[in-house]
Amino acid sequence: MLIETAIAQFIETLRQGGRVSPATISAYSRDLHAWARFALQRGQTEIAQMDRGSLRAYLLAERSRGVSVRSLRRHFAALRALYRHLQQDAPELRNPVSGLAMPRAEQRLPDWLTVDQARLLMQPAISDTEAAPQDFTGLRDQLILELLYSSALRVSELAGLNLGDLDPHAGTVRVLGKGRKERIVPVGQPAWAALRAYLAARPAVAASDEPALFVNRRGQRLTVRSIQVRVKKLGDARLGQPLHPHTLRHSAASHLLQSSGDLRAVQEYLGHAGIGTTAIYTHMDYQQLAQVYDQAHPRSRRGDQDMKHFEGKA
Prior knowledge:
- One of its GO terms (cellular component) is cytoplasm.
- One of its GO terms (biological process) is DNA transposition.
- Keywords: Cell cycle, Cell division, Chromosome partition, Cytoplasm, DNA integration, DNA recombination, DNA-binding.
- This protein is mainly alpha-helical.
- It has two domains: 3-89, Tyrosine recombinase, N-terminal domain (DNA polymerase, domain 1, Orthogonal Bundle), CATH 1.10.150; 115-281, hpI Integrase, Chain A (Orthogonal Bundle).
- The protein is built from 14 helices and three strands.
- A three-stranded antiparallel beta sheet has the order 1-2-3, with no helix packed on it.
- The radius of gyration is 28 Å and the shape is elongated.
């Protein structure tokens, strides 16, 4: 049986059955005809020609052109429903969907900033929602941003910092992370400059025996919630959008990974116990990843024609 014929009969059965919504029928029809066109390009016109490899190739091709995992799962469901329908009349028909894993749901990643956005965020500015940069609050908030981005700290780690955790000679900060696991992370020069300015203003607010690095105007340790509120307002003032502290952590890790390509170093930087967590919380630009692959992987050599084919789809 021709693939197009099988699809037409299946869609008509759904319409006559009255148990499937018109929206689902329309989606199934659209997805299955897209699959039929892909099969035709591969010289496959008969249902009997299809095998598991053909279906896998179709799903991978759809993913490579930007189709979301959610849409791929719908494509998969349409193919599975089609073959169930066909096997009712032809039980001997090979079902290539059987045993084929459904595409896994996408995991939502935290928001992140571009390098230009991060640079703009770090520029002190005066507005109705932000303290003057030379005011105690402004100096403190500037340091909050610098440390979150420079050292990719969790907001709880930032709130828990004490004065003794900073080592200006080594250019590092000691952080107590999840599970009370300690790690040492680098601190950039702009953050050190912001720290010196903040420390000059801090004695007028905090008692000499107060260990907390970040304090409020009453000289008490700044809470996680207070830091979140300040970062949100700073995002509104400088970027025109609300900002969460974790966005800066994710942005810092992403920018470091894009520059170095060293996933293990980023794992240490973030304090992740396993490399899998780092792979989820960071991302690489696809073109950069493809370039690294072409340069480094022994099985990456593709002909000029293949390269032009992929570049034309970019």
